[in-house]
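Re: weekly structure request thread

Next one in the queue (187 aa):
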Amino acid sequence: MFHTMNQRPPTRLEYALLGLLHQQPQSGYDLRKVFATTALGNYSSSPGAIYPALKRLETKALVGSEIDDARALRPRKVYRPTPDGSAVFRAWLVQDISTDDVARGFDELMLRFAFHWVLDAPAASYEFLHTLADLLGRYTKELEAQRRMFPPEAPVQSRLALDAGIEQYRAAARWARKSRKHFKEDT
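Done, posted below.
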């Protein structure tokens, strides 16, 4: 998708930063506040992570920056996506979803969906949710098959932990099916 031989694709934190910068140009401090006060905080509100991530995005030419000295006492560096940054971000948003993504990267799938508004393509959001619901349903069936194979002497905690996972995937599949109604299939 993105990376050349010399560059790695952005990290989840870097994608989250790109998404926020698509909303509006912001400084590192502004971005830290967003991470500190929203659910994005699980990606990091640490300046020890955010500022280096912004620097990596700048080095990869996915964001540009300029000094905003409108505030005479405290000029600030404001970041915005470059055209390449927008292209890489959009490609990440529309990449195919796999069963592995559902099983091991559900939080990244939700991050991608949260920024789907950037695409301005309701059909893409519908398709994302349709595929997600299908894969969640299939994966839930796999987990249910594993549950049926548990030996009776298996620790109850193990069975209950698997039951919790099954319930979470069922709920996510219901959410995805229900959420599709916000987007028309053929838009």
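The mean pLDDT is 91. Residues 99-182 form one domain.
Next request, please.
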